[in-house]
Specification:
Layout (H helix, E strand, L loop, with lengths): L2 H6 L2 E6 L10 H14 L2 E6 L9 H12 L8 H10 L24 H8 L2 E3 L7 E4 L3
Parallel strand pairs: 1-2
Antiparallel strand pairs: 2-4, 3-4
Length: about 140
């Protein structure tokens, strides 16, 4: 991709699982997404898969392939699990596998005032406010 093509990208769409850790009402998640959009200076649109529709979610389908791939393997430690994950293929592609040691604190949420500042960057689709969120960078 040329530099000119990179400059023309002004919207990143992320199809995202509707799990509790990344839902459209999680204050810390939305804060991090606003920070990300601001860092890259691009709009980011979060498009959530509806609940109980894992058959449409490519990540869920990938997990199924991974489970078949390591079927019967004894995953004794993190290194073994990562090694197996790196050798799977899905639609002819190998995944990029990294281990993150970052620990996120649990139970932390933003105050209403802090969340109001975050919400200023969010454009929620009036018909699907929890499922289609446009994040504008600051």
């Amino acid at each position: 991709m040329s530099t000119r093509e990179k400059e023309e990208i002004n919207l990143i769409q992320i199809k995202i699982d509707n799990g509790s850790e990344s839902s459209g009402v999680r204050t810390q998640f939305l804060k991090r997404m606003v920070e990300f959009a601001s860092k890259i200076q691009k709009k980011v649109q979060l498009l959530y898969f509806p609940p109980y529709h894992s058959k449409y979610n490519p990540i869920e389908r990938c997990w199924g392939i991974l489970e078949q791939h390591w079927n019967g393997a004894i995953l004794r430690d993190v290194e073994t699990m990562l090694a197996w994950a790196k050798t799977m293929t899905w639609k002819g592609l190998r995944p990029i596998v990294n281990f993150s040691e970052k620990v996120y604190e649990k139970g932390i949420s933003l105050t209403k005032k802090e969340m109001k500042n975050i919400e200023m960057h969010l454009g929620r689709n009036p018909d699907l406010p929890k499922w289609d969120i446009l994040i504008r960078p600051s």
